[in-house]
């Protein structure tokens, strides 16, 4: 009986950690074991992404489910999947398994008010100040949208530091926060939309020249409200008045 020709493949090849093919004459048993071990770890990381830039997790929630020993810290996540080139560097908070996206510039100060906005009550950062623009974040909007889809809750804090400037009068005037859904949140919003006042040290402008701070928090199931993209101040522009704003990270979580 005649047996036909059998085509053989290229055979087994080994590659070093730098990606270069190893010369078969240079191979040692320990090299073979090391290469196999590296490939095994890569396969495991593909199945259970470990939050590295090479293997970003889908969200921090998924990261902590797969790696219960991991602690809170900075990790890479890729909510929209596909290429890892647009993965985002976020803070993963373990208690709530939150994925927290930071603004590009968290502290906003030394703001010069445009002259034609002096008498306008709502002085939005994006409009009323020289070099003004909306608040930007270290994540493309598509990544943020996917992150919202994979979450049930969202929260973010805004701190208004003041000198002779008011920030929050309950049920009356206040600074305003604008969410990514273009809705405004302030002291006269209906209760369900009103930010929570964590601290209110900017309750009057008595000319004492002392610095205080008002801290507002939005904690909501309506994830489209966050992140905050603009803030307006109203009691500013006078003599010896000053203010600074600190934008906290926008955090998205399940619990």
**What would you call the quaternary organization?**
single chain
Low-confidence regions = 1-12
Helix-and-strand structural type: alpha+beta
Query: CATH architecture of the largest domain, please?
Result: Sandwich
Largest sheet: 9 strands, antiparallel
The CATH class of the largest domain is: Mainly Beta
Describe the structure.
The protein has about 260 residues and is an alpha+beta fold. It has two domains: about 25-100, Transcription Regulator spoIIAA (2-Layer Sandwich); about 105-135 and about 155-255, Jelly Rolls (Sandwich), CATH 2.60.120.1000. The chain is built from four helices and 13 strands. The strands form two sheets. Strands 1, 2, 3, 4, 6, 9, 10, 12 and 13 form a nine-stranded antiparallel sheet that branches. The protein has a four-stranded antiparallel sheet with strand order 5-11-7-8. The N and C termini lie far apart (about 70 Å).
């Amino acid at each position: 009986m005649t047996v036909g020709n059998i085509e053989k493949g290229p055979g087994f090849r080994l590659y070093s950690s730098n990606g270069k093919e190893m010369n078969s004459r240079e191979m040692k048993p320990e090299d073979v074991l090391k290469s196999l071990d590296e490939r095994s770890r890569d396969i495991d990381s593909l199945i259970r992404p470990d939050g590295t830039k090479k293997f970003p997790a889908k969200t921090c929630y998924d990261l902590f489910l797969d790696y219960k020993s991991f602690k809170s810290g900075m990790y890479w996540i890729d909510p929209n999947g596909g290429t890892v080139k647009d993965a985002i560097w976020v803070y993963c908070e373990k208690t709530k398994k939150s994925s927290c996206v930071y603004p590009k510039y968290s502290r906003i100060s030394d703001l010069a008010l445009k002259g034609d906005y002096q008498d306008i009550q709502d002085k939005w950062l994006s409009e009323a100040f020289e070099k003004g623009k909306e608040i930007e974040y270290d994540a493309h909007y598509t990544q943020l949208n996917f992150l919202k889809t994979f979450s049930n809750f969202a929260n973010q804090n805004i701190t208004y530091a003041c000198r002779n400037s008011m920030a929050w009068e309950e049920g009356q005037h206040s600074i305003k926060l604008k969410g990514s859904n273009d809705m405004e949140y302030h002291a006269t919003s209906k209760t369900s939309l009103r930010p929570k006042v964590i601290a209110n040290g900017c309750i009057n402008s008595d000319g004492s020249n002392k610095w205080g701070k008002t801290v507002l928090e939005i904690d909501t199931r309506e994830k489209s409200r966050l992140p905050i993209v603009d803030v307006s101040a109203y009691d500013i522009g006078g003599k010896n008045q000053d203010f600074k704003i600190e934008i906290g990270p926008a955090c998205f979580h399940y619990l």
